Structure formats: structure tokens, C-alpha cells
Amino acid sequence: MPNEATRTSSGSTPRAAAVLFDLDGTLTRPYFDFAAIRAEIGLAPESRLPILESIELMEPLQRKQAEEILLRREREAALASELWDDAHAVLAALRTAGLILGLMTRNSRVSAETVIAKHGLKLDRVHTREDGPVKPSPEPVLALCAQLGVAPVAVWVVGDYLFDIQSGQAAGATTALMIGDAAVPDYADQANHVIRRLGELPALLGLGARLPRTSAPGLP
Ligand SMILES: [Mg+2]
């Protein structure tokens, strides 16, 4: 799909052909209470292993129960999800500029599709945990690139957590970490860009009027 040249102000980043978004906390307001889910599943509060990876290590019966809890919690959260105020406008602006839009999430397919349908999101491809390895692996980025016919170097990955950045970076994509009003996390320097809101993206991609840009100290 042709698109206008979209370069960052530095001019060092190839034009973007596609943008791959994280879902929870990025297109939507954060809608998971991870601590409550971990508690119901019975994961130790002090464990630093994420939920999906913890479930993979369980015995079959325990694993089945944990997966049922997770699916129920995901379904409830998806139904209650709320988009960020500027999500529709930003997606529309990127699409108007000819960019391909994808989504990659560690959510289940049914959870992601519930959020997408609830809010009428228009996305070209959606990668969920049923589709293969999940973030922080680069695989979801590479799989979406193959399906969309774009090179990773022409892709931006936008997310609100370390795994989004690690996944995009390992795939060779340009990464943007969205932090909202939170303090800049210590891993922010792994991202190519740090933004507070989705609304900063169009300008960062070289589209339309430039908006104030927020970057972490020490970023290239
Ligand atoms: Mg997220």
C-alpha cells in the first residue's frame, strides 16, 4: 500500500508502512487487574514470572483451571474496556495517511475480538496468543510483517510495556513506548521514542501538524 514519506524529525528512520499496536493500556485504558487475576489463579505475589509464562509451567489440571480463570477475567475486562479518548482519531489519521494498522496482544482471540467489536476498531491484522509466540518474542511482529507484506524496518511498534518494546526491537522495528502520566520507567531507553499519549503519534510519524513531543532523557 503506498504511503507518504513518514520520517521522524531526525530523518534517520525509514518511512513507516505499518504500525502495530498493543491493546491493553495502549489503544484502551488499562483494563486488567493483573494482581487480582494472579491472586485468583494462585500465583505467588512475589513471583516476577508473568501470568502466561506461569501457566505454561503448571501441571495439566492446575493449568486448565488457571486458563479458565484467565479467560473469564479477560472476557469480563474486555466487555468493560474503554478506549483512550484519542484512539479513534489517531487510527483514522494513520489510515488516511496510507499506513497499515495491526494489533498484537498477549490476550486471547476472543478477548481481543470483544474489545475490537465493542469499540468498532478497524485493524488490518490481529495477532493473539493463539497465533503463536507472544511478546516479548519478536515472533508476533515478524508474523504480522509477513502477513501484511511489510519489512520490519518499515514497522513501528507502539505499546505501554517493556514486552512491547523488546518484541519490536528484537524484530528490527521502530518502537514507541507510551507512558501516560506515569514516571518514565527505567527501561524507557530501550525504546526509540517515548510518548505520553497516542495523539503524539501522527506528528512523530511525520503526519500533519507537529505536536509537543515527549522523549526520555538520554534517548538518541
Ligand atoms: Mg499493554
List the keywords:
8 helices, binds magnesium ion, six-stranded parallel sheet, Rossmann fold, alpha/beta, 36% helix
CATH superfamily of the largest domain: HAD superfamily/HAD-like
What name does CATH use for the topology of the largest domain? Rossmann fold
Which segments are poorly predicted (pLDDT under 50) over 5 or more consecutive residues?
Answer: 1-11, 210-220
Small molecules (ligands, ions, cofactors) in the structure: magnesium ion
Largest sheet: 6 strands, parallel
Rg from Cα:
17 Å
Name the CATH architecture of the largest domain. 3-Layer(aba) Sandwich
Name the helix and strand elements from N-terminus to C-terminus, one letter apiece.
EHHHHEHEHEHEEH
Into how many domains do the coordinates divide? 2
Secondary structure class reads alpha/beta
Care to count the β-strands? 6
Q: Which descriptor suits the 3D outline? A: globular
Strand order of the largest sheet: 3-2-1-4-5-6
Overall pLDDT metric = 90
Q: Bin the helical content.
A: 25-40%
Strand content: 5-15%
* Number of helices, counting only DSSP H or I runs of 4 residues or more: 8
CATH hierarchy, class of the largest domain: Alpha Beta
Give the N-terminus to C-terminus distance in angstroms: 30 Å
